Amino acid sequence: MHILHVTIGAPKLKIEAENKNLAVLTVGPLPSGYGMTIGNALRRVLLSSLPGTAVTAVKVTGMTHEYDTIKGVSDSLLDIILNLRGLRLRKHSKEAEVITVPFVKSGVITAKDLKVSSDIEIIDPSQVITTCDGASAKLKMEIRVERGVGYKVVSNEDSVAEEDPEFILMDANFSPIKKVKYEVIPARVGDQTNLDQLRLEVETDGSLEAENAIKLSASILESYFQLFNTEDAYTDEDFTTNFSAIKAKEEAEKAASAAVEESFTPIDILGFSQRTLNALVNGGITSVEELLKTPMSQLSQLRGFGQKAKTELEEVLKERGYASTAPAPTINEEN
Q: Which of 46, 253, 300, 307 has the fewest CB neighbours in a 10 Å radius?
């Protein structure tokens, strides 16, 4: 971590989930330029490397290519394929699964008409697939659903390797991310005015919660950076630091500050005479805790603190139930 954080403190991270599909991350303060560095890295991983579910192939009875028309169905097979690419599904296992949709009813066929197993969840049941008008009861469509990462483009090798030639292969976008937007906002800490604050907005299709998408992306980035974190990794202690060191320092400062605040009891609550009180305050003793820690030999050296003040002090402490201070040497000067 940049050595500047020793001065400005560790970055504060906050993730606000407006709903399961939308989350906003803010982190700062950051050294100048780090907002764009971190934001762009997270954005690239979010768009390219998160797992999701997509339709990868389709088969309709009697159809041999995507330009065929289906009797009793208002849409061409090509239009249906485009609609299927927009299906929002969540699949729990990695293995491919074939699901079906019958064309037995007239009217709009939506995602809720899909016949799926318990391994697949339909995120948006209202998504339109096609419209039927007197389709044959024997006519049905089979859809292959897979779980993957990134964008998969169908190649000639994929077509040759396909075991069932009736399946029409489709390009598939597995990414659960619908939108990623980040901006770098100017920030300041004290006299440091050239700092960054990163704001990252992430929206998903519902198959993966937006907050989890951010955390998974950060984890993927961290796993790659761990390649450089070997036993012989180079460090420069004068110009680098780490989160644990900064956090430990901040906690120690808070604890010390809290201890001071909790242990300060004004000395005037003891009800000393004005002369004795003035002698103690002028000597720099302003709290009961400080008075109890000061030996009588040291108190006796304060200006205006004589035998009468010593006697009054011992009587007051005894009445209040405080332990008496250490005995003082003989004082000849009367107060």
A: 253
